[in-house]
Automatic annotation (TrEMBL):
Domain Peptidase M20 dimerisation: 207-299
Keyword S-adenosyl-L-methionine: no
Protein name listed in UniProt: Amidohydrolase
Pfam families: M20_dimer, Peptidase_M20
InterPro entries: Amidohydrolase, Aminobenzoyl-glu_utiliz_pB, Bact_exopeptidase_dim_dom, Peptidase_M20, Peptidase_M20/M20A_hydrolases, Peptidase_M20_dimer
Endpoints of the signal sequence: 1-21
Keywords linked to the UniProt accession: Hydrolase, Signal
Gene Ontology MF term list: dipeptidase activity; para-aminobenzoyl-glutamate hydrolase activity
Any one annotated GO CC term: cytoplasm
NCBIfam families: amidohydrolases (TIGR01891)
Swiss-Prot/TrEMBL GO biological process terms: folic acid catabolic process
């Protein structure tokens, strides 16, 4: 608790006089049109993981126009990049990374209408708001660069273009490639229906596609000659569902059958099931995974089929650093929440009607959630970054209060002015956080000490992906 208390006090320390010569918030404000333009363009494209060529290219072009040196195609991923700007001077100063995502989700589309309106000619949508994530982080990185330049503060600002967060674990491959080894601190954010900078952790996870191979035959004329790959999938699913009774409360297991045959009268010789396993402890994910593989082998043995599997992605849990989180919380509170115009309020109220009994007051967008430590049941590849360098983040109300991620309501708001306002708020908070880190050596020391203590003296980074290459075709 001593480190956390120190962080609150440190957040109140005034920045040096030289650093006050330029207003970092003004640097964000003048980019409002850029934030909206970039966010809407990426929203329109709605590119899937590892296929975000135009979205990644747009962010790179914007950064190059501001004087950033861009390195594209890092970590063996064509749509991943690192953009860097280093202040000139005798001292190097801290290296601060801002993370940017830009991949969409498959199978969900929606216009910017406040009522259900799928878009017929689209096959993906920004139901997790990563168009806003990319645009808001872009704005913050440029604002920080301009502030460093005007004040002469020593330091390096980097924007990391991180593709395929949705099941592709782009940041894991970037972490594994050592791209964060010289980073002092990382800052990120995520779209949400609330404003919060709580010290939230997440579930570690691993996924794989289990592929069963059987023997095809006429299902009526010669059933004895067939060995159904679908039977293998169903047997595995049954055993895994029985296994759920014997796991602890933080375990999450879910699956979809991605291929189960084409016609009932043909015994399928191929079937595939896609599994996710999650837990707050990465070691427990590994232990659960051993049981999952055993179920797959048993299912194949019992149905006379064969099985193999391909690990698709895996993320470590988030490592919260309270020395940083409490300062970010203070920055967010100094800015306040999201205020709607009359038109935006009408839009929000229409969206809220679709929630039925789950609706909450749309005015909640203007509030900041209480600070605290909590376990989030989602997973993110930011987790791996957080074990490589001290990391801090926040959420802003880019969606109507009560909205669930991965919903049509999130797609609609992510392409609207409500979403753009949330991205601007995030950019302001991240910019203020970066300025604090550049100018507050005591905070840097406290955060690093907490980070080192949390990892332990013998910590060695290990991804949940093993040594596999990035699955560049996992969304094709």
């Amino acid at each position: 608790m001593k480190l956390a208390s120190t962080a609150i006090a440190l957040s109140l320390i005034a920045t040096p006089l030289a650093a006050q010569q330029a207003d970092p918030l003004a640097e964000v404000a003048v980019q409002g049109d850029r934030t909206a333009r970039v966010a809407k363009q990426i929203w329109d494209w709605a590119e899937l993981g590892y296929q975000e060529g135009r979205s990644s290219g747009l962010l790179q072009d914007e950064l190059e126009s501001e004087g950033f040196a861009v390195t594209a195609g890092v970590a063996g991923i064509p749509t991943a990049f690192v953009a860097e700007w280093r202040s000139k001077g005798d001292k190097d100063g801290p290296v601060i990374a801002i993370l940017a995502e830009y991949d969409a989700l498959p199978g969900i589309t929606q216009s910017t209408s406040a009522t259900r309106d799928p878009v017929a000619d689209k096959h993906a949508g920004h139901a997790c708001g990563h168009n806003l994530f990319g645009a808001g982080s872009l704005t913050a990185a440029i604002a920080v660069k301009r502030w460093l330049e005007k004040t002469g503060t020593p330091g390096t600002i980097r924007l990391y273009g991180t593709p395929a967060e949705e099941g592709g674990s782009g940041k894991v491959y970037m972490t594994r490639a050592g791209l964060f080894e010289d980073v002092d601190f990382a800052i990120n954010w995520h779209p949400d229906s609330i404003n919060s900078a709580a010290a939230e952790t997440s579930l570690a996870n691993r996924s794989a596609k289990f592929r069963f191979h059987g023997v095809s035959a006429h299902a009526a004329g010669a059933p004895e000659r067939g060995r159904s790959a679908l039977d293998g999938v169903e047997a595995m699913n049954m055993m895994v569902n029985l296994m759920r009774e014997h796991t602890d409360m933080n375990t999450r297991i879910h699956y979809v059958i991605t291929s189960g045959g084409s016609a009932p009268n043909v015994v399928p010789d191929f079937a595939e099931v896609f599994y996710y396993v999650r837990h707050s402890d990465a070691d427990e994910v590994r232990a659960l995974w051993t049981r999952l593989e055993a179920a797959a082998k048993g299912a194949a043995l019992g149905t006379g089929t064969e099985v193999d599997w391909e690990i698709i992605h895996g993320n470590n849990s988030l490592l919260p650093i309270e020395a940083l989180a409490k300062v970010m919380d203070a920055k967010l509170r100094s800015l306040g929440g999201i205020e709607y115009t009359a038109e935006e309020k009408a839009f929000a109220e229409q969206i809220a009607k679709s929630f039925g009994d789950r609706a909450v007051p749309v005015e909640n967008a203007a509030t900041i959630q209480p600070y605290g430590k909590s376990l989030g049941y989602g997973s993110t590849d930011v987790g791996d970054v957080s074990w490589a360098t001290p990391t801090v983040g926040l959420n802003t109300a880019t969606w109507v209060p009560g909205t669930s991620a991965h919903s049509w309501q999130a797609v609609a708001a992510s392409g609207s002015s409500i979403g753009f306002k949330g991205a601007q708020l995030a950019a302001k908070a991240m910019t203020l956080m970066a300025v604090e880190l550049y100018t507050n050596p005591e905070l840097r020391t406290a955060a690093r000490a907490e980070f080192d203590a949390a990892r332990g003296p013998n910590y060695r980074y290990e991804s949940l992906l093993g040594d596999r290459d990035p699955p560049l075709d996992y969304r094709k």
